[in-house]
């Protein structure tokens, strides 16, 4: 069987089946799921807690972390060097020095078992600055 097709004289090859339909918005490309925000590490949360304690006037110059464990506990010892530069920052750094050893930290899943200032270098000239080194022992809860 053979079928012949002859286009009518008024045939428009660019006209499609929905030409008379109400205007439809263009299709958008399929959306991709948003990537999950990066997981904040314990070190990130500790630095944020220390910056809060220092009224956000300090700057972390160095942060190192070393695994620590005993028979009953596991965790890490964090050593940080912070810089407080300028008069207002130095005043905040002095409050930081006084508050750190007894501060109650709220770091999810961890307990700060020990927090100590190991070194403080306070200079007034040419501009006031305070460089603080502290060590914190964080133990995993549970």
Keywords summarizing the entry:
single chain, 142 residues, alpha+beta, STM4215-like, four-stranded antiparallel sheet, 2 helices, 35% strand
Written account of the structure:
The chain starts with 41 loop residues before the first helix and ends with a strand. A hairpin with a 4-residue loop joins β1 and β2. It is of the alpha+beta class. The protein has two helices and four strands; from the N terminus they run αββαββ. 18% of the residues lie in helices and 35% in strands.
Brief characterization of the structure:
This protein has 142 residues and is of the alpha+beta class.
CATH class of one domain: Alpha Beta
Broad structural category: alpha+beta
Query: What's the main sheet like?
Result: 4 strands, antiparallel
User: What is the CA-CA span between the terminal residues?
Assistant: 80 Å
- The count of strands amounts to 4
**Share in helix:** 10-25%
Query: Can you tell me the overall shape?
Result: flat
How are strands sequenced across the largest beta sheet?
1-2-4-3
Outline the fold blueprint:
Blueprint lengths: L41 H12 L4 E12 L4 E12 L1 H13 L10 E14 L5 E12 L2
Antiparallel strand pairs: 1-2, 2-4, 3-4
């Amino acid at each position: 069987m053979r079928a012949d097709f002859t286009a009518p004289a008024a045939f428009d090859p660019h006209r499609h089946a929905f030409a008379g339909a109400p205007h439809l918005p263009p299709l958008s490309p399929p959306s991709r799921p948003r990537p999950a925000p990066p997981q904040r590490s314990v070190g990130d949360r500790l630095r944020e807690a220390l910056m809060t304690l220092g009224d956000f006037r300090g700057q972390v110059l160095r942060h190192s972390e070393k695994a620590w464990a005993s028979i009953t506990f596991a965790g890490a010892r964090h050593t940080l060097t912070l810089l407080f530069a300028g008069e207002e920052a130095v005043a905040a750094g002095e409050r930081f020095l006084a508050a750190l050893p007894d501060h109650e930290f709220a770091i999810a899943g961890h307990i700060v078992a020990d927090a100590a200032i190991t070194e403080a270098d306070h200079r007034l000239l040419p501009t006031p600055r305070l460089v603080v080194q502290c060590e914190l022992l964080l133990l995993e809860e549970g």
